C-alpha cells in the first residue's frame, strides 16, 4: 500500500509517498480501506518534531494522520457491531495511507461523503474537550480567537447548541461565515480587543490559532484560569492552560453523529487534495486563514 511518511523533521518538503506493508488490527481495533484522511495542525507540528505537552517528538521514520473515513475490511479480536463493508469514520494511527487501523469509530451518517466525515473526529474531540476545560456555561459569553478553522467551526456550533454566546475573531473574508454559525464576529489586528469589548463582556476565551494573543485574552477575561490554548506552546508560561491531551474520542464521535442528525453541525471541506499532495496540504494548513477543514483523498474518496 501507499502511505505518506517522513524520515527527517522539517518543512512540508520532507513528506514522501512511500510503499509500506498493510497494518493489521489488534484486539479492539478495525482496519479500513481509507477513502479520506483529515489534515490537522497537530500533523505538521509532529512533522516539525515539536514536543507536544508531555509527548516527545515522534520517532523516525514516521507516518502521519489521526482522522479517516473509509470502508471496513478487517476486524480485530473482540470487536462487535461492525463488519467488513461498513462505512465508518474515526480516529486511528497513520491515516495518511491507503489502509489504516482505527482505535475509535462510528458509522457514517447517511448523506455524508468520505471527505466530509474525515474532517470531524479530532476536531470534535478537541472542541468538546476545550469547552469542558474552559468551564463556560449556558448564558455566558465565550471568545474564540481563530474561530473559522475546523476546531473553531465546531466550537461555535456546539456552544450555540448549549446556549452559550460566542464572539469569534477571524480574517475579513470569514466574517459572514462566523455569523452563519451563530457567532458575533470581528476581525483580528490593531484594535481587536476594543472591538471585542464593544460586543460584550467575555467570561472565557479559547486560543485556537496561536497568534500570540494569550496575554490579551487573559486581560479580556480578567483571569488566566478562564483561558485555554491549543496552539500556543508558551501559554503555560503566562499561567494559561495548554490543552494537548486527547479526551474521549468515542464520546466525541457519538456527539458528532447526534449533532449531524439534528442538523446542528456542519464543518465544510475547504479543499480536498490527492494523497500525493500531502505536502501542499500541510503548507496551506500552516499558512492559516482556513475556513473549515482540509482533507486528503485516497482511492475512491469523494471531495464532498
From TrEMBL:
A GO cellular component entry from the record: cytoplasm
Pfam family, one: ADH_zinc_N_2
Matching SUPFAM superfamilies: GroES-like, NAD(P)-binding Rossmann-fold domains
Stored InterPro entries: ADH-like_N, ER, GroES-like_sf, NAD(P)-bd_dom_sf, Quin_OxRdtase/zeta-crystal_CS, Zinc-ADH_QOR/CCCR
GO MF annotation: an example: zinc ion binding
Principal location class: cytoplasm
Record-linked PROSITE patterns: QOR_ZETA_CRYSTAL
Subcellular location: Cytoplasm
SMART domains reported for this sequence: PKS_ER
Sorted UniProt keywords: Cytoplasm, NADP, RNA-binding
Stretches assigned to the Enoyl reductase (ER) domain: 10-296
Subunit structure: Homotetramer.
Protein name: NADP-dependent oxidoreductase
Amino acid at each position: 500500500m501507499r502511505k505518506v511518511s517522513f524520515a527527517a523533521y522539517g518543512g512540508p518538503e520532507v513528506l514522501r509517498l512511500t510503499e509500506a506493508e498493510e497494518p493489521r488490527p489488534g484486539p479492539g481495533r478495525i482496519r479500513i480501506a481509507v477513502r479520506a484522511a483529515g489534515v490537522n495542525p497537530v500533523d505538521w507540528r509532529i512533522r516539525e518534531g515539536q514536543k507536544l505537552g508531555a509527548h516527545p517528538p515522534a520517532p523516525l521514520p514516521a507516518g502521519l494522520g489521526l482522522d479517516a473515513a473509509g470502508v471496513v475490511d478487517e476486524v480485530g479480536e473482540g470487536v462487535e457491531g461492525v463488519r467488513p463493508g461498513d462505512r465508518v469514520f474515526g480516529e486511528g494511527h497513520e491515516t495518511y495511507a491507503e489502509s489504516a487501523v482505527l482505535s475509535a469509530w462510528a458509522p457514517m451518517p447517511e448523506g455524508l461523503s468520505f471527505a466530509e466525515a474525515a474532517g470531524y473526529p479530532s476536531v470534535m474531540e478537541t472542541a468538546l474537550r476545550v469547552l469542558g476545560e474552559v468551564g463556560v456555561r449556558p448564558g455566558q459569553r465565550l471568545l474564540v480567537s481563530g474561530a473559522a478553522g475546523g476546531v473553531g467551526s465546531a466550537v461555535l456550533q456546539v456552544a450555540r447548541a448549549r446556549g452559550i454566546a460566542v464572539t469569534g475573531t477571524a480574517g475579513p473574508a470569514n466574517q459572514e461565515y462566523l455569523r452563519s454559525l451563530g457567532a458575533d464576529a470581528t476581525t483580528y489586528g490593531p484594535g481587536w480587543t476594543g472591538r471585542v469589548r464593544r460586543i460584550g463582556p467575555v467570561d472565557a476565551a479559547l486560543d485556537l490559532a496561536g497568534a500570540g494573543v494569550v496575554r490579551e485574552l487573559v486581560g479580556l477575561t480578567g483571569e488566566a484560569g478562564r483561558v485555554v490554548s491549543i496552539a500556543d506552546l508558551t501559554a503555560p508560561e503566562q499561567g494559561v492552560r495548554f490543552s494537548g491531551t486527547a479526551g474521549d474520542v468515542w464520546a466525541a464521535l457519538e456527539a458528532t453523529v447526534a449533532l449531524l442528525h439534528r442538523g446542528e453541525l456542519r464543518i465544510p471541506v475547504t479543499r480536498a487534495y490527492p494523497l500525493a499532495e500531502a505536502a501542499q496540504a500541510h503548507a496551506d494548513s500552516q499558512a492559516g486563514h482556513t475556513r473549515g477543514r482540509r482533507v486528503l483523498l485516497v482511492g475512491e474518496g469523494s471531495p464532498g
